[in-house]
Write a structure and sequence with these properties.
single chain; 400 residues; alpha/beta; Aspartate Aminotransferase, domain 1; Aspartate Aminotransferase, domain 2; 2 domains; 7-stranded mixed sheet; 12 strands; 40% helix
């Protein structure tokens, strides 16, 4: 067996299941899950109906590059959403469809990490973080360097605090904006600064932007890495790769549909890897995905629903927990009055509400764990369930 598998930690939801083991919640309270970021809004009919209309194409092998129809739909969306110059995204060169960003974020490190150098390769990632970043780095043979995202840093990595020796070994930086679990957004100036660092120190930027469409100001959507690169005059999006998905944007997590886009030279090498990886998207999925990327009305409505839930829950939790309104995403990241694991276990035991301890999403370094003492709450359940969960949390906190 691959010995690098031993470097992987149990996944957060494995830890959560162990934490809840042996606990029987009140039978008179329906279970409410705020632990998993799985969208619960209906998948738009235009996606599901297009999928059904093309099921006959299951008899055809798909190609790794995907259909021209899908790539043009993605290129059009990227150009509109991030105000890119006309023609900046070439559907033949700058993007690849993927089966959700999770598999692509993992596979990307396997393709780009170089273990033949004199110094052990280093991958930088935010802390707390989406656990795929760490697993991808470790299984690619790299070491990991964690950048604490705390209230003091605006819940964003402080890249200016990274020393020269670390940058010299860095091959890949995973960026998540809007962030999971905090919802923090890196502005365009910050992205431009990071692109400058990538060129100065010779590393690749992998920007996980899967929450970019869950924001709360229609006039000011979060900036994207390709947008910053184009505005800064970076030719061909050099060293910049972004990851997007229909899972959150279009409430289609089961479709397993997303894309990677950016630097054409990196995309070409990633394509070579994926040709052997055997991960082409089925043609019915591709047609449904093209329909999803071409429509924006359902995304605006999706944001309205999340905004409504966020407003309602924050009204109830005001003065109950130390919690900030996120700039984007559907997560709340409150500080807990007791240890985060104790809070999560007791909340489940007394109120049958499940949240995820923040320390399950982070790593302790230098005596400090930036996820400890917080929990992640995913406002994915229907409005009435989110309101009920907030009321139960308020009752629970009053009894502490």
């Amino acid at each position: 067996m691959n010995p690098r598998l031993d470097r992987l930690q149990p996944y957060p939801f494995q830890k959560l299941a162990a934490l809840k083991q042996g606990v029987t919640p009140p039978a008179d309270r329906e279970a409410i899950l705020l632990s998993i970021g799985e969208p619960k809004h209906p998948t738009p009919a235009l996606i599901s109906e297009t999928l059904l209309a093309h099921l006959h194409l299951l008899s055809v092998y798909p190609t790794t590059r995907g259909t021209r129809l899908l790539r043009e739909a993605i290129a059009g969306w990227l150009t509109r959403r991030f105000a890119l110059p006309a023609g900046a995204i070439d559907p033949e060169l700058h993007l690849l469809p993927v089966n959700g960003t999770r598999e692509a974020l993992f596979a990307f490190a396997q393709a780009v990490v170089d273990t033949t150098t004199d110094k052990a390769p280093l991958v930088l990632l935010p802390n707390p973080f989406y656990q795929i970043y760490e697993g991808a780095a470790l299984l690619a043979g790299a070491e990991t360097h964690y950048l604490p995202c705390t209230e003091e840093t605006g819940f964003l990595p402080d890249f200016d605090a990274v020393d020269a020796a670390t940058w010299q070994r860095c091959q890949l930086v995973y960026l998540c904006s809007p962030g999971n679990p905090s919802g923090a957004v890196m502005d365009q100036a910050g992205l431009t600064r990071l692109i400058e660092l990538a060129h100065r120190h010779d590393f690749i930027l992998a920007a996980d932007e899967c929450y970019s469409e869950i924001h709360f100001d229609e006039a000011a959507p979060p900036a994207g890495l390709l947008q910053a690169a184009a505005a800064a005059g970076v030719k061909g999006f050099s060293r910049c790769i972004v990851f997007h998905s229909l899972s959150k944007r279009s409430n289609a997590p089961g479709l397993r549909s997303g894309f990677v886009a950016g630097d054409a030279a990196i995309i070409e090498r990633f394509f070579a890897y994926r040709t052997y990886h055997g991960c082409a998207m089925a043609l019915p999925q591709q047609h449904a995905s093209a329909a999803g990327w071409a429509d924006e009305a359902h995304v605006v409505e999706n944001r309205r629903l999340y905004r409504e839930k966020l407003d309602a829950v924050l009204r109830i939790l005001d003065g109950v927990l130390d919690v900030q309104r996120p700039a984007a995403s559907f997560y709340l990241w409150p500080r807990t009055p007791i240890a985060d694991t104790d809070f999560a276990r007791a909340l489940f035991a007394r109120q049958n509400v499940t949240v995820l301890p923040g320390s399950y999403l982070s790593r302790a370094r230098d005596g400090r764990d930036p996820g400890s003492g917080r929990v992640r709450m995913a406002l994915v359940a229907p409005l009435d369930e989110c309101i009920e969960a907030a009321a139960r949390i308020k009752t629970f906190c009053a009894g502490l």
